[in-house]
Design goal:
single chain; about 260 residues; globular; Heterokaryon incompatibility domain-containing protein; HetReg/Transcr_Mod
Length: about 260
């Protein structure tokens, strides 16, 4: 499900079939070149560390175009920022990214959220969200260091959040040089106040869910108001605070029941 287009797909395929066209944006989930290392290489474990659980078994409906999965309906999209330009748009077309980031930051600062109790907490969560909590080559580790799986940001690290104007300028310059997950995506805030990075085609009232067996959360859209468990797949998400299994801990421990999602 990592092939995610910048525009709505116009294919005669179910929404959960990946689109690996030339304009697909950088996936949030991991790229695994060394299969022998398996799960240890994965950057995120949103559905927990064991992706082979029986709960994550794939099923199909009577209609083979319907994929049936279990998981947890986590939250609903409430606010959406403007789409961040792709790296090509910034470098070749001269599209400005700073005004968009400023608008995103204003969204984050103004939101009333129980998740982030201080301006410093909001600032930290904002930068970690737009960087998908990953270090930047050339800033946090050396450039051209050979293949290096995207490393998570530790609790304390330079530039996150930037403490001075110079640090913020250096951070933004490093971001512009890299094809990051924020390119082509939108900063959004959920109904509960979580900061997230979502696909460009996101709409308010789309739902964020954790699908058992998945590495990252997914954005789904209800097919109609009558079918409570019928959805179309919109794409991958980064949601700050749930990328290590926090949202499904009770389901995996047998303390809660999983939700059913029928993807069409």
């Amino acid at each position: 499900m990592t092939g995610e287009p910048q525009k709505s797909k116009n294919l005669r395929l179910p929404s959960w079939v990946p689109d690996f066209g030339p304009r697909s944006i950088t996936p949030i989930s991991s790229f695994l070149p060394y299969h022998d290392l398996g799960e240890s290489q994965r950057v995120f474990m949103t559905a927990g560390p064991d992706r082979s659980r029986s709960l994550s078994a794939i099923q199909f409906g009577d209609d083979p175009r319907t994929l049936i999965l279990q998981g947890h309906l986590f939250d609903v999209v409430s606010q959406c920022g403007e789409k961040y330009p792709s790296s090509d748009d910034i470098g070749l077309a001269g599209h400005k990214n700073r005004p968009i980031l400023d608008d995103w930051k204003n969204m984050a600062i103004k939101t009333q959220s129980e998740m982030y109790h201080s301006s410093n907490a909001k600032d930290d969560a904002f930068w970690r969200t737009i960087l998908t909590d990953r270090q930047i080559e050339g800033l946090h580790f050396k450039e051209n260091a050979g293949w290096n799986p995207a490393q998570r940001l530790p609790a304390k690290i330079e530039y996150i959040p930037p403490k001075t104007t110079k640090e913020e300028r250096d951070l933004l310059q490093a971001m512009e040089k890299r094809q990051l997950c924020l390119n082509g995506r939108r900063f959004c805030i959920t109904k509960k106040g979580h900061f997230c990075l979502l696909p460009p085609t996101v709409s308010k009232k789309d739902v964020i869910c954790v699908l058992l067996g998945g590495e990252v959360p997914y954005l789904l859209r209800r097919t109609d108001d009558q079918s409570q468990d019928s959805y179309t797949m919109v794409g991958e998400c980064y949601v700050h605070g749930i990328m290590d299994g926090e949202a499904v801990a009770d389901i995996l421990a047998g303390k809660d029941k999983a939700d059913i999602f029928r993807l069409r």
